[in-house]
Amino acid sequence: MRLLLVHPSALMYSEIFLRLEPLGLERVAAAARDAGHQVRLVDLQVTRRSRLDAVIDEFAPEAVGVSLNYLANIPEAIEIAQRVKQGLPDCFVFFGGHSVSFVADHVLEQAAGAVDAVVRGEGEPAMQPLLEAVRDGGLTSVPGVVTRDGRGPMPRMMHGLDEPRPARDLTAHRRRYFIGELEPCASIEFTRGCPWDCSFCSAWTFYGRSYRKATSEAAADELAAIREPNVFIVDDVAFIRPEHGDAIAAELERRRIRKQYYLETRSDVLLRNQEVFERWARLGLRYMFLGMEALDAEGLELYRKRIDPDENVRALKVARNLGINVAINLIVDPAWDAERFRMVREFALSVPEIVHLTVMTPYPGTEIWHTESRRLTTLDYRLFDIQHAVVPTGLPLAEFYRELVRTQAVINRKHLGVSTALGAARILAGNLARGQTNFARMLFKFNSVYNPDRQVADHQRPVRYELPLPVRAAPGDRRQLYVHATPTAHRRPTAPPVPD
Ligand code: B12
Ligand code: SF4
């Protein structure tokens, strides 16, 4: 069967800092190819929409799958589905990915026939049975599949991560993937899932707090096959298990593989497993993203981060000593007043780290979706990108965005200040010499994208597609939030103990 897989456009507010390959979609593509299908992939993060239209016309796909990790992409995905059906009414159109797994029935209704099915959960195991069922019938017996006529059994998780290897050969324009100065940059997955349970996050509900690892041999084989000099490790929390990080490092040392790395982790994991991060710093670990989320104990408790402010401060010191650049994330509570923004600006200017701000947003699949949702001021999918306020703001909305953007601008200027610019100039010159322009564009694009008037105007746009109104979940059994069936053999098999 001819299968076309599509990743929607980048969300504007994140495109400035990074744009990365659609790793999940590449794995789905590999699973379909292993099952004998002919597969093409179009990533609209780096390809014009007109190119997608051309591929649809030339390739005449029999099935089209769209990746929906991000809620804010749902309206665009529905429009793509409509476009496909207009030209190819018999083509089977399906959606899959993180976010759509939590709102599958609703999206099928909204698409009004343009989408034939949503695949919930991990896509790899679904591809072979799904495409067989498209040809032979029996869609509603495929695990994870939801159609307007019924749904298959709950999706099951894969046992390991080693196979299939992402079909990186299907992504064109790979030079356009970057994160900060690391360009071009590929992505890799060493582990999947997270054993913690933060209240604002859906990573743990999607994977049911399970935690699976690639073998060190497979991880090293994959890294050896990656052509880019830079690699973003997509794991939710890197190196939870130090022996796993060490085993991969040992393979890389043995094979003399050297690249520059960017990863995400938690302060407590860094403090506990300093040696493994030190070893990776020697192997090329340059950047680390720490989701600190709040500066005070009260905020950390509210988000159920299970970390105290002192651990965060100590983790920053450790990272500095290791020579790793750190980006910190802080969650902006829409209730903040001007004084609170001022304090955050003061903090951001007092530390050498890069500080990112994201606005607290209840997403389907998170606990706060059920507790905060009665306060939602909008159901416009496009505003659920953690750069807009979707619950009431303490300040008038326009003033809230002015404070938010002012704070982001102060932080941005700090990093583009004279000394940084001098340091950046060397990197910039090197990247430009290699024909890499993403970092250069990032340095100059900030003011055109981050603009309070534009953010307020985003709330005034006519809304065609809205999120479903959340149902209040019964307190108690949080497993009701899980996407996959969780057989006992799969539940947190190797995760460290995390208090319930
Ligand atoms: C790596 C990552 C990124 C990377 C790379 C994104 C990319 N290009 O793919 C970067 C750093 C760029 C990023 C950015 C953002 N991210 Co992000 N990201 C992740 C993270 C940690 C892992 C995703 C990943 O690569 N996993 C590994 C691959 C193999 O799995 P996968 O992509 O999920 O794909 C599997 C399934 O989803 C499914 N699948 C996926 N696509 C398809 C398609 C079909 C047809 C089918 C059948 C199945 C299928 O099958 C795949 C294989 O099993 C997730 C959290 C998580 N654990 O999922 C958050 C997450 C997806 N991100 C999130 C957010 C909020 C963002 C940002 C908005 C943050 C910001 N401040 O701007 C931006 C927006 C980016 C954009 N689109 O412009 C949220 C999504 C919230 C939501 N409900 O919309 C998540 C869930 C994190 C969270 N804790 O809440 N992100
Ligand atoms: S530790 Fe990170 S990935 Fe895990 S639940 Fe918390 S925010 Fe999500």
From TrEMBL:
One of its GO terms (molecular function) is methyltransferase activity. Signal peptide: none annotated. Residues 8-141 form the B12-binding domain. This is Hopanoid C-3 methylase HpnR. NCBIfam families: HpnR_B12_rSAM. InterPro entries: Aldolase_TIM (IPR013785), BchE-like (IPR051198), Cobalamin-bd (IPR006158), Cobalamin-bd_sf (IPR036724), Elp3/MiaA/NifB-like_rSAM (IPR006638), HpnR_B12_rSAM (IPR027564), Methyltransferase_Class_B (IPR034466), rSAM (IPR007197). Residues 180-396 form the Radical SAM core domain. CDD domains: Radical_SAM (cd01335), radical_SAM_B12_BD (cd02068). The lineage of its organism: Bacteria, Bacillati, Actinomycetota, Actinomycetes, Kitasatosporales. Keywords: Iron, Iron-sulfur, Metal-binding, Methyltransferase, S-adenosyl-L-methionine, Transferase. One of its GO terms (cellular component) is cytosol. The keyword Hydrolase does not apply. It comes from the Bacteria. GO terms for biological process: methylation. Coiled coil: none annotated. Pfam families: B12-binding, Radical_SAM. The keyword Ribosomal protein does not apply. PROSITE patterns: B12_BINDING, RADICAL_SAM. Its cofactor is [4Fe-4S] cluster.
